[in-house]
Design brief:
By secondary structure, the protein is of the alpha/beta class. About 30% of the residues lie in helices and about 25% in strands. The strands form 3 sheets. Strands 12-13-14-15-11-16-10-17 form an 8-stranded mixed β-sheet. Strands 2-3-1-4-5-6 form a 6-stranded mixed β-sheet, sandwiched between helices. Strands 7-9-8 form a 3-stranded antiparallel β-sheet, with helices on both faces. β14 and β15 form a beta hairpin. α1 packs parallel to α5 and α2 packs parallel to α3. The mean pLDDT is about 95. Bound molecules: zinc ion (ZN).
Length: about 475
Amino acid sequence: MKVFAGGISTETNTFSPMPTGMRDFSVIRPGDDFAEGMAPAFDQFRLGAQERNWEYVFGLYASAQPAGITTRATYESLRDELLDRLQAALPVDIVLLALHGAMVADGYDDCETDIINKARRIVGPQAKIGVELDLHCDVTQSMIDSADAIVLYKEYPHIDIANRAVDLFHIIADAAEGKTDPTMALFDCRMIGLYLTSFEPMRGFVDEMMAMEGKDGILSISLVHCFPWGDVTTCGAQALVITDGDADRAARVAEEVGCKFFSLRHELDQEPLSIDEALAQALAAPAGPVVIADRADNAGGGAPSDSTFMLKALLERGIDNVGLAMMWDPIAVQVAISGGEGANLDLRLGGKMGPMSGDPLDLRVTVTGIIEDMIQEWPQQGDPLRVPCGEAVRLHCNGIDIIVGSKRVQVFSPDVFSNFGIDPLRKRLLVVKSAQHFYAGFAPIASEIVYMAAPGAVAPRYREIPYKRVDLRKYPWVDNPFA
Ligand SMILES: [Zn+2]
């Protein structure tokens, strides 16, 4: 057997003013240094092929931090490079793609459907195509028709990227060997939102999905969570089921799982806390560190990560013994590095990308740390994922340690503090710009976690998102769209 693997991955916030261009993509090509733990799906695809003594051809993997619409030239160039390598690798028996599922480019509302359909045309009807997607995706019938199996991450935070790649590999390998006939069905849950799987009722829901897999001909069950900041007609939660050759059963189980999820909709609603409410709750905690998630400025959802609303509130209230990470401000990083460790500077910080970032703050800061190539180790179910964060500095201002980066990246682990010699356990408050990926690393050390909805580019207030194209005959706009 010959296996071909590749992918292009970014999550597109169609409301973001920051375009995604070629400079924003990290591209790994055949022969490039491909450090283990950077792209776990490909580690697993390669291992799976090696274990079976199958030939493994790696095409290309391009990934970009979520931001606005990808430029047409960038998308077409990366897609064509990937597909040209697939063409050159023919004949292949298996194609494994690691994509995101919510990528939008100029002229392409749905890049993943485009890639999968074109891959199918290249390899013909016999080869098996398997796709791993982020759960913050949209899945279309056209994808289902072109691919043999689509498997999504089940966990948010996404700690199961490698395990789901293993699931996908097994399903596709069995199909390629003629042991099974993967058959997919979708059910539209008519909901839009973000669903955290660390807590009930999602925890139990995910565990139930997993318990159903491998029984009664069910090969895989995924919940398509959707990405609420992608203004495309396909946005919405769905259930996706793969059975072994039984289309009716796949449709029935998808409906059963989808309706179960829909029945949880009121329980899943989270009360978004304002800055005042979040601070009141955090400061009432008897001990630290209380972690406050600044969800609205999460780089992982396409936000700039340079908003100043929370930092301003902390300074105005004189709250000290706080760590705040990571503010994206490459200019401030350059100035701090030029000043050097120990420098006292008048620095204009943050608030540069637009109204959703707030106003810049003019601060007197001390540079207390500089790291040239910061890495965060993001805890996973297997080996941690190593996330490069570029140049970063630690600034101190009125009892607040502010971590500022030159690369726009969300907070994945307490490394953002401990890399600078800060003991996160000794802080009263830790403010992290992240919606949920911080959770795996911070839950073990936090005395309490407070989810805040400050103003910002990805505030979890879905009814306020200025959609033009999404079909709003869905929850929470309509309480029961099935009625
Ligand atoms: Zn995601």
